[in-house]
Amino acid sequence: xxxxxxxxxxxxxxxxxxxxxxxxxxxxxxxxxxxxxxxxxxxxxxxxxxxxxxxxxxxxxxxxxxxxxxxxxxxxxxxxxxxxxxxxxxxxxxxxxxxxxxxxxxxxxxxxxxxxxxxxxxxxxxxxxxxxxxxxxxxxxxxxxxxxxxxxxxxxxxxxxxxxxxxxxxxxxxxxxxxxxxxxxxxxxxxxxxxxxxxxxxxxxxxxxxxxxxxxxxxxxxxxxxxx
Length: 228
Hints:
Distance between the termini: 11 Å
Shape: globular
Number of strands: 8
Largest sheet: 4 strands, parallel
């Protein structure tokens, strides 16, 4: 119910928020969307979300810049001990009691060079998309930022951070020189549902400035990536 309530509230605030819960549920028919020993999604789950988010965005807005090609390559599967195993203090003496590690096939996305010669020197270097969020976006093991680049066909700047939740990285980004000097046309905010009932320590930010954020200015939209 909390997830559906959040979707309704952000929609009422004129923020694009596709229902990605149903996307991930449907995706389970083709493979694991989340790791068994970890709180995070698999690269397959991150890619599926990036596909759905890109389709939703392209139906609603025109992205700046020319489409850019990206390719993604997957490495061989390797054992991966997820963060949930830290709740079981058995390693190294009793590691045989731990659940078997996940088999993680990391992915890496690279741009395909399309501009050569003098034209490349004068190409627009401003990022048309900014990604802000948590370890779901920051950790390269899931390649969410790379999947977004490939499916949006646009480069992006990644301002997500590990271990900070979704709110603090966004507030830091709003105060950054990158945002002040070259605000992107599109900001994607990856916001895990589990953080909704949690409180954040915002004492590092000016209280008066925080109060101004409660009032929308202009017609700036955020595209919010929501997950269970």
